[in-house]
Amino acid sequence: MTNFRDVADGPAGGSRAAVTITDVANAAGVSASTVSYVITGKRTISPATRRRVEETIRALGYRRRGGSPSPRAGVLAVAVPPLGDRQLGMEMEFFSAAAGAARELGFDLLLVTDDEGTAGLHRVTSAALADAVIVLDAGTDDPRVPVLLASGRPAVLVGAPGEHRGLASVTLDFAPAGRACLTHLADLGHRSVAHLTPPDTPPGARLRYLAGFVDSFGATAGERGVKAISRTCAPTAQYVARSLDELLADGGPTALVVHDEAALPLVMGTLRQRGRQVPGDVSVVAVCSDTVAGQQRIRPTAVVIPAAELGVLSVRRAVGQLDGEPAADPDAVSPAFVAGESTAVAPAVREGATLRER
């Protein structure tokens, strides 16, 4: 809850009077509660009013203190996985949305990489460079969690669901997507499906939240009489080529679920090189960001990760804690299943229909 006695950080010498929420409200011609709602995003405010309040906040130099005895840095740190464990399309959407949400609330974002372990996170928290920390692709035994708990700073874990007292989390509920994906392929007559997953790379271990997808995918396959196999597939041309050659030898699955947006263009390219048409010979479902889906030659049928929604929710949860809100239960969002041009009726079903027509 926003404290209406919050004040702006004054200059170092304290030569300027502090700006309060009431000052912002009076200058913008709105109520103090409206200013609070614009800042926290708890209620919908008309675009015109929101712009007027935001412009007034910037003009007066207002910064919230949230009742804290020390000034805020006005910065939210975002800890990302190592470069080799990154999903750049998702991160781009996440950062863009998170930056916009942070800007509306009067904060900047600071990117912290984990290529050197937790040292960067230690520096940010110990030197008070950021008011709160958002951790991407967090797992239940993530090595970054102890650092956050020791720092005492508000934090939001994004990724696998976890139960860390005092740390908020925003999770992905993949179970509905797993069911929708297998159901779609079964309805098209596919009886053998391969699920290609990326290797689980520490320290981020970014796909521990795959469990919900795998469980519901496998359960639905059993119900529909579909053979579902899973195999890791690193996003390199050599690895993808070898994996597909092994999978597709002697017939193999008629559908692939590519659960790694970095591997998706390699899979599609390798299938073309092998003379396999998508979706004529092999149907492909991608699990990826909307950005990566839009970059393919054909729009794939996809489980679209709501990266932008995750970005906004993460920022609001972080700022909410700064305003005194408890960590509370995890916010869960579900990816959307969107039919595209990369899936079609299984070849055996299509051939059987042709024979019957004759």
From TrEMBL:
InterPro entries per UniProt: HTH_LacI, LacI/GalR-like_sensor, Lambda_DNA-bd_dom_sf, Peripla_BP_I
Keywords recorded for this protein, A-Z: DNA-binding, Transcription, Transcription regulation
HTH lacI-type domain: residues covered: 19-78
PROSITE patterns named in the record: HTH_LACI_1 (PS00356), HTH_LACI_2 (PS50932)
Keyword Hydrolase (UniProt): no
Pfam families: LacI (PF00356), Peripla_BP_3 (PF13377)
Transmembrane helix listed as a keyword: no
Top-rank lineage group of the source organism: Bacteria
Single GO molecular function: DNA binding
Gene3D superfamilies: 3.40.50.2300, lambda repressor-like DNA-binding domains
Designated name of the protein: LacI family DNA-binding transcriptional regulator
Phylogenetic classification of the source organism: Bacteria, Bacillati, Actinomycetota, Actinomycetes, Pseudonocardiales
